[in-house]
Give the backbone structure.
Amino acid sequence: MSGSKLMRAITVSEFGAPSVLKLCSGVTVPQPGHRQVLIRVHACGVNPVETYIRAGTYPRKPTLPYTPGSDVAGVVETVGEGVTAVKVGDRVFTTSTVSGGYAEYAVVTDDCVYKLHSALDFTHGAAIGIPYFTAYRALVQKAHVKAGETVLIHGASGGVGVAACQLSCALGLRVLGTAGTPEGMKLVLKNGAHLTFNHREEGYTDKIMEATEGRGVDVIVEMLSNVNLSKDLQMLAYGGRVLIVGSRGPIEINPRDTMAKESSIIGVLLGVATPEEKKESAALFYAGMEAGWLRPVVGVQYPLEKAAQAHQDIIESPGAAGKMVLTM
């Protein structure tokens, strides 16, 4: 029985700087309950939101101590009572965990675990969860995009950005993407953007407006609203929508910018998606794995013991280049 087994896991006992992420080696392997699955974790994605939670600045605070991480990929070790979606030995990925993903084993509810196609390895699997499901929620479930519309992905070289580029292409949108480095811009083009812009360059928003012949864009997927939202509202076409995927603080906007264009600012939070909505996303993504358009870009990989370094780098890096992943 794995009940007596011990594992390595990252534990957070107080909110604070990345240094509060401590590696513990004598943690008991958790056991799955009713409709839960135990996964032997091979890789776990690192998401910016995990740094906000760890710092104690996010509205939702877990009970201390806790293990961070939601996007794991690995192999089903055991299943609890009532689980039918997956079986022991299946290769899987997740969008959420019960016990935390920065660990060698993780317990997950059966409605948050999905089969990983054989074309993808575990680091790819760890890069799907939050990024791809957030991109689908933003574009399809909230913005209700239509083929032929123009989308601007503001911060397109990170995990959500790459996912949004690939999904937008598959949905028949005209895709404009921004990145902060030349490498990031190349990555964005490689993943389906038709045009790319450097958001560190003076006047880049004018270039975006020129690319739309002054009409503006129909949809903006925004990763850093506290910096870009005011500019975003000025770049929208009539009836345009800005999807707020990320923000690191407040920003002042002029509400009049929304009036003339009857535009919308829409918040996006994957955590409130219903099981039906997640099932819908998963169905499209499995088809995307089969068809070959869903191909996560894995960025820097860190061993589990370097989780604190990963948290520092994801916030301080000059420009994202794919999905940051911890490997076990």
Remarks:
- The mean pLDDT is 95.
- The first strand starts at residue 6 and ends at 12.
- Residues 275-291 form the longest helix (17 residues).
- The radius of gyration is 20 Å.
